[in-house]
C-alpha cells in the first residue's frame, strides 16, 4: 500500500483536517514485475539455443562441413535447436492468444472415456516402439466402462492429456509404470495420471504451472522442454471451467489431476 497525505488548510492558515489516500500499488507492482520477468525469461530461453547453434555453425564454417562424421552431427544439433525454438514460439503464440481472449474453444460433445482410451493407446504404442523399447515403461489403464459425454474442444483437451502423459514418461525412471485413470464424481469427471518418477518438491508443486517454471532447468531443456506446457494446460483447462493440479512425493512419483464439469443429462434423457 502507498499512502499519500494532504493537509486541509483554511485561508486563515488554520489547519482543519487531514486527507489520507491509500493506493493499492502491490497488485500493479506485481503485474509489472511479472511482465518484466516474462520478457527476461523469453529472451533468455531464445538466446540459449541461438548461442549453441551459432557455435555449431561456426565450427561447420571453420571446416567441419568437410568432415563426414562431424558435419551430419552438427547439422542435427542445429536442426533440433531450431525445432525447439519453433515449438517454443508456437507455445508463446498460443498463450498470447489465450491472454488476449482470442483463443476460442471449438466445443463439441465428446465421449471422454473414448478420448482418454485413445490417448493412452497411442502412448502405449509409442512406448513399445523401437525408440522406447529398452526403457521398459508400462502403461496402466483404469478407465470407465461407460461413455461420459462432456462438452470440450477435442484438439485442446488432447493437447492437455498429451502434455501430462509426455511429462509422465519424460520424468519416469526406466521400468516405470504410468497409470491413467478416470472417475466419475457428482458433477465432475476426474482424470488422473500417476507416474513413479522423481517427484516434485513440495515448494515447487504449485509453481510448475507458471510460465517457464521448471524444477530442474537443465534437465527439462535437455529433454527439449520449453517450460510452457503446463502453463498452457492450465489455461486450457480453466477455459473449459475445469481445474488441474498435482500431488507428489519426492522419489516416489507424481499424480496430475484434471477435473472437468460434467452434467449427466444425456443419460437421463435417453433412458
Ligand atoms: P517442460 O517443458 O519443462 O516439461 P512443463 O510446463 O510441461 O515444462 O512442466 C514444468 C515442470 O514441471 C517441468 O520442468 C518439471 O520440472 C515439472 N514436472 C512436470 N511433470 C512432471 C512429472 N510428471 N514428474 C516430475 N516433474 C514434473
TrEMBL record:
<feature type="domain" description="Histidine kinase">
    <location>
        <begin position="41"/>
        <end position="264"/>
    </location>
</feature>
<protein>
    <recommendedName>
        <fullName>histidine kinase</fullName>
    </recommendedName>
</protein>
<feature type="domain" description="PAC">
    <location>
        <begin position="1"/>
        <end position="37"/>
    </location>
</feature>
